[in-house]
Amino acid sequence: MTINIRKRMKEMFRVLALAMVLLLLTSCGNPDTKGGVDSEGNDSKGTIIFADAGWESIQFHNNIAQFILEKGYGYQTDILPGSTAATFTGLRQGDIDVYMEVWTDNLVDVYPEAIESGDIKEISTNFDDNAQGLYVPTYLIEGDEERGIEALTPDLKTIQDLEKYWEVFEDQEEPDKGRIYGSPPGWNVDNIMQTKIETYGLDSTYNYFSPGSDTGLSASLAGAVEKGEPWVGYYWEPTWVLGKYDMTLLEEEPYDEEKWENGYGSSFPPMPVTVCVHKDIEESEPEIFDFLSNYETSSQITSDALAYMQDNDVDTDEAAIWFFKEHEELWTSWLPDEVVSKVKDALN
Predict the structure, then answer these.
(1) Cα distances (angstroms) measured from residue 42 to each of 38, 39, 186, 252
(2) 134-149: per-residue pLDDT in tens?
(3) Cβ contacts of residue 68 below 8 Å, gap of 6+?
(4) Last residue of a domain, one of 234, 261, 288
(5) What is the number of domains present in the chain?
(6) Shared-domain flag, residues 139 and 249
(7) Of the given ranges (164-173, 186-195, 224-233, 301-310), which has the lowest mean pLDDT?
(8) Domain co-membership, 154 together with 248
(9) Which of 46, 54, 221, 226 is deepest in the core (most CB within 10 A)?
């Protein structure tokens, strides 16, 4: 009896081991990822892998491009999620085909090298009108007659102008100073913003207040705006907050490298957000390369899409459908007429 049990166990282990090997070989050699011939002998298009680095705007742009590739060109698509570093490495190695939103300054140590080595190709700029800095609700400067809000800071244009309005932004916990909401802690920009406040001499009249998290920061801004109250603090775009609310970015001198390196005393340096593909795409899938070479939106469009998601409690795939309907004149300019027709048919 014992010998039979042992034999059966050995046989089971051999079967399981063989199954695992076959599964591994199948996953590693999936022909769909590179196209080829289907079971009926017809040409088949491969699966295009997109990077998902975790934030909603890249997911939104992924959904737009995926819909076009699937409905307009007949490809299958998939997503590979991970951190910025991991997904960018995946792009370089060919595990990922398309990266729809590369924040180039966040990859300053590896992005130029990847371009120069030829591992990836930068084929378009998704948007370059993104901004960050200190924002205030526009009604503080212009008022809002419909809401009965008076302009409390009519001459507020620059960060330096904040000095004369500190009482408007009174810190309830320390009333002899104003409060500036800072960056979420742990972000690189947190140190930049604290240093900026000191460089502009605002630390004598304002407290730099940590919001605790990006959720805490957006909640403080949204809460103030909904009530029509004063608020000044760090924010960035594209975000749903700046798509939903009318905010004004306080002016600084144009970016100056010397001033930036000595106390961040100028505007943030421009940060183009690019669309990149793995080096093989241009040759293996030229129609995808051509389409993505034309892909260009804006920070405002992206913020509007994120605000649409927030207001309607929908996901990025539905925001992509909203985009197709709201910006037909834009996306149709990226594509050949026959592809446009297929995408339109799929939307109806």
Answers:
(1) 5, 7, 53, 60
(2) 999 999 999 999 999 9
(3) 291, 331, 334, 335, 339, 343
(4) 261
(5) 2
(6) yes
(7) 186-195
(8) yes
(9) 221
